[in-house]
Structure formats: C-alpha cells, structure tokens
Amino acid sequence: MPSRTIGRSRGAIISQYYNRTVRLRHRSSRPLLGSVARSARPSLRQYDLELDHTVLEEDEKRSLLVKELQGLPMAQRDHMVRNMPLSLGEKRWLREKSWSPKGNRRDQQGRGRAISCCRRLRYACILALHSLGLMLLSGLYAARPWRYALKQIGGQFGSSVLSYFLFLKTLLAFNALMLLPLLAFLVGVQAAFPPDPSGPVPAFSGLELLTGGGSFTHTVMYYGYYSNTTLSQPCGSPRESGQCSPRLGSLPYDMPLAYLFTVGAAFFITCITLVYSMSHSFGESYRVGSTKGIHALTVFCTWDYKVTQKRASRVQQDSICTQLKELLAEWQLRERPQSACGQLWQVAMLGLGWLLCLGATVGCAVAVLTFSEVMIQRPTAGGQGVELLALPLVVSVLNLGASYLFRGLATLERHESPVLEVYMAICRSLILKMAVLGVLGYHWLARRVAKLQAPCWEDFVGQELYRFLVVDFIFMLLDSLFGELVWRLISEKKLKRRQKPEFDIARNVLDLIYGQTLTWLGVLFSPLLPAVQILRLLLMFYVKKASLMANCQAPRRPWLASHMSTVFLTLLCFPSFLGAAVFLCYAVWQVKPSSTCGPFRTLNTMYEAGTVWVHRLERAGSGASWLPWLHHVLVENTFFLFLVSALLLAVIYLNIQVVKGQRKVIRLLKEQIRNEGEDKVFLINRLHSVYEEGERSRPGRTQEEPCNPSHHDPTRRDLDLRSPQDPAVE
C-alpha cells in the first residue's frame, strides 16, 4: 500500500526486509552461541543497515536480501516477497534471483548439504507447471472475444453504447450453448444415418440463401429431413407405419424421442442459464458498495498502473473521462429542479405520445394480419420464388418505420432524463414487436396448418423464420448504410456541420431481442437456426462497430447505464423467451404434425412420441424398467415442473433479498462511519476549547514555550475533555 512507503526510500525497505528474513531464518535454525567461534559470529557493525543508510550501497543491500531469501522455505519466501511494498519489477527481480540455481547451489554448499536429483526435478516441474498455468491464464484472457474492441467502445462512447455490444455478446453465448446439444444428439446423428431421398434433390441456385428453400429443404436444416425410424440398427423390412421393430432387450436410438427431448433439453438449459445470468446481473448492477455517485473514488482509484502500452493507456484515459462525464451528468440531473408547469406539460406530452404509439402498434398488427391472409389466398403461397419474401419485407418495413416514428415522438416529448427516454423507446418498440410476433404465431400455427396440411407445414414455418432473420439482417445493413453513413455525409458535405448521428440504443437492442425471439420460435422446425443466428450476430457486431466508429458520435447528454444489462436480460427472459416457450409448447401438445414428413408423421401430437417410447420399453423387458418410471416422474407428472419453477423463482427471490439485506447493512455501516467522523470532529473541538481555556488560565506563559503544553506538563494529558460550556458539566 502507498501509505506503508510514505517517507521511506527503497533502500530502507530492502534493509528492513533483510533484517526480517534474517530473524526468520535464525528463529528456525539458530546454533548455540557457545558452539560458534568468535570470529564466525555475525556482527551488526559489519551490516549497519538500519542505523546508518550511507554505509552500504543499495545493490549490496539487495544482494544480502537475496541471500537471505534463498535460505528461507519456498512458501515463506513467496509470502515475504509478495508482502514487500516494492514495485512489480523489484519483486520479479527478487523472485528470479532467489530462485537462481547458482545461488541455491552456493547456499546449499555453504551449509554442507547437496540438492538431490529428485528434489531438483521436483522444483523444475513445479516451476514449469507454474509458468504453464500463467501462460494459459494470460492466453485465455487475451483470447476473450472482442476484448480490446469493447474497451475502445466503452472509452469513446460510454457505458450506454457499450451495454448494447455486451448484450450482443451474451446472445452469442446463449446461441452457442443451445447449438451444442442440437449438433451432438440431433443433427450429427441424423447426418451419420441419412434417410433415403424421397425425390430428386434440386440443384443449388443461390436463391436459397434468401428464401431458405430449394436444396436446403433436403438437408438437416429443416424438420422434414429427419426420419421417424430407429437409427442405431439397420432397418431391413420396415412396417407400413415406417417404424423399425427393435430387437428384444435392446435400447435403440429413437429419432422422434431424440428430436423432442433434445429440443426440450436445449430450451431447459437456456432457461437455467438465462435465469442465472439475470440473477447475477441483478446482483452486479445493484451490488453492495457500488461506486455510483462517488466521484473521488473514480478520480483517485480508477487508473490501472499496470498498463504500460500507449494504446491501452489512451483507451483507459478515454474510459475514465467518459465515466466522469456520466457521473457528473447523473448528479446534475438529480440536482436539477422542475417546475409544476413543466411536469404537467411533460405528462400531457407523454400521454399523447403513448396514444400515438399504441395506435401505430394496432395499425401495424392489423396490417400484418391482413397481408398474411392475402398471402394465404394466393395460389403461389407454397412456391419457392422471390414472392415468399413479401411478408418478411412488409414486417421489416413496418418495424423500421414505427421505430423512427417512436424516435420522433421521443424528441418532441423532450425527456429530462436520457435513461427515461431510452426506457420509453424500449417499451414502445417491445410492445410493437410482441404484437407483430403474436399475429405471426397465429398465422403460422392456425392458418398455415389448415392450408398446408398435405405438404410439410413445419418446413414452411422453419423457412419463414429463416427468411425473417435474413430480411431483418438486410434491413439492419441498409439502416447502417443510409441511416448513419449517408446522414453523416450529408451533414458534413452539404450542411457543413460536424454533428454526427447518435447511436440508437433502444432500436438496436430491440432488434437483437426480436432476432433472438425468431430463433427460439424456429428451433423446433429448423434445428440449425441457432447457427444462422450466431453467424448473423458475428456479422452484426463488426458492421455495427465499424458504423459506430465512423458515423456516430458519443451521446450529447452522457448518462450512466448502471442497470441496462439487467433490463435487457429481463426483457429477453419474460416477454421473449417465455413467449417462445408458450408457442412451442402449444405446437408440441396441441397441433397435429404433418403426415408426410418429419419424425412425428404417424402421431397425433409431437408429445405422443414419449408415450409410444415408454410403451415400447415396457414391452422390451425389465432391463430398462427404470426409464418409463423416470419419464413418468419427470415428464408426465406436473409436480416436477412446478418444483423446478418454484426453485427457480426461489433462487431469484433469495438473491434479491440477499442483495437488499447487504445494501441495508452497508447503508447502516456508512451512517456509522459518518457518525464516527462527527464524533471525532466533536472531540477535536472540545480538545481545542479545553486547550484554549487552559492557555488563558496561565498568566505567565511566554511565546518561546512550545505549542503543546503536554510536553512539559504531564498532568495536562489527563485533562478532562469537557469544556465549561458543556451542559453536562455542573
């Protein structure tokens, strides 16, 4: 700590720790003084380190310290070097010299002992493993995706813009976690046992990248490609139902059951991870001892002195500057009063804005429903042409136009708080997108199922969701090109202004939530849709980062986004993930699968695959009797579902209560610290008043006397601190 080195030189510190190591070494192995010759006894006059610092040079002190460190055990030596108030370079030099083989050999030879080969090999292995561990840790730290890019964005644009890119990184991790079980237990198994083609496979034309149809339909991309047979053994003579009869006592890999349980397990893992992330983010954003509002701590304790590169120091300087701007802006916003007339005007504008937004949302939902009905009545609705992109184009245009309308209304409302403005925009855009997705869910599961019962309607829904993702990504590119780049060029070339557009956090975050909701909706019908979402997120990160650096400017009103990550994860969990889970549960339990494709072609519902599998295991023998019991307890019994839901809610509730309790304790401790400070001020004032009273009572005091009378009068040290003016003094 710096307070331990105030007023002391480096030589004095080394001398002190040299003497400490000497005492430690002599305490463990100290011979009797009578058995040592007088000439061999150490003398403090030869090493006058603490009494006279000018006798020996600093290098000699350092070498003596190294010799003494070499004589200590390994654990004690590391602890000693770690606690020295020296720089990292000095500590590294002392550690290297104390571990020097030459120095160890000389020290051991001086004691008359030799290091055995086994011990030398042990030390070499320990050092090699320690160095390997440090290299792996530094490699993992450097291999984190977009580490420097996120620091650069946070330093130049603040925590508000950084929260968008952190949320994008979180979505990337969620999709990768969902894709792993799908690849391992579903896509990989079906690719290893491909079914017989039902017809000629069309050639790849390039249009499939936009429409998702064509040759993609005959791959593991969609639901219809997966078979309803047993894949763990050859099927010599399938029955009329298309099922292979398993051998007695065998445990086959049932593809319908694997499809259903893999998708369910992927959703369950995503739910657990999402709840944990939301709980952890809540604890981080509302954590105890937060630096919110503590400007002195930001000024004096934020700089990282381990940064040595000029580029990294520049990024850290920008980050600290932006953080100070956000803290000052938040403090000014709390201190700024608002008149009653201004509050009334703001409430009126908010009401009018919400009426317009709700009207626009209802209009967009009705327009999507009407256009989807028109697309159903068209004879080319089941085709594979470009006309299939009509509905995704209409929905993307409505979403983009409504987002610009909401942004204009927010400008007219003139919110005092930029945080409130972002939250308002997020709520309005979320209501719009959830309404549109609700209409689309009705269109897919109610209208399309009845219209496309003969073909594979699951493939059509999967292709439709793929098209929505692709078209949404294209509109994102166009918005970055025309909404940011062209506006910057017009502002600089034509208007002769250096003002750049700001990064719209609310619209971009809702685009991420919208795309992730589409991915969750389509996992059942297209198991490789998370891979498409991963590729989309990767491209989106680099496109948005390049557009942000070149075309956007930092927010004109800086604000501290301390709770934005928690808000984003909450919106991702409850409206998005919960809605997708309800949609898929309805498709699994209520909707009849297609009779010509997919693993559930012979069943009334997808859920019946579990019941059929249980009956088959019961007929197979007693070797797998525990699996039907497990299926009955975990799947058919609703108690387990309620128990898991109750546990998740209990974890969230307990975490919230723990954080609240810790914040209350910290608030009480802060009040106690403040009271102790006031007590110290009170005691100092009383001491000063007593001292002045005593000085006035001494008539013969001269100016040559010291200011502190306790140096000459020991009786004044026990003087009562209560002043005569104290009401407690009688």
From TrEMBL:
Give the location in the cell. Membrane
Principal localisation: membrane
Start-end of Basic and acidic residues biased regions = 693-723
Q: What is the name attached to this protein's record?
A: Transmembrane channel-like protein
How does this chain sit within the bilayer?
A: Multi-pass membrane protein
Task: Name the residues that span the membrane.
Answer: 121-143, 149-167, 174-193, 257-277, 344-369, 389-410, 422-445, 465-487, 508-528, 566-589, 639-659
Q: Which UniProt keywords apply?
A: Membrane, Transmembrane, Transmembrane helix
Gene of origin? Tmc6
Which InterPro entries is this protein grouped with?
A: TMC, TMC_dom
Q: Where is this region: Disordered?
A: 693-730
Q: Give the molecular function GO annotations.
A: mechanosensitive monoatomic ion channel activity
- Tell me the superkingdom of the source: Eukaryota
Family classification: Belongs to the TMC family.
Give every TMC domain span: 456-562
Q: GO terms for CC? A: plasma membrane
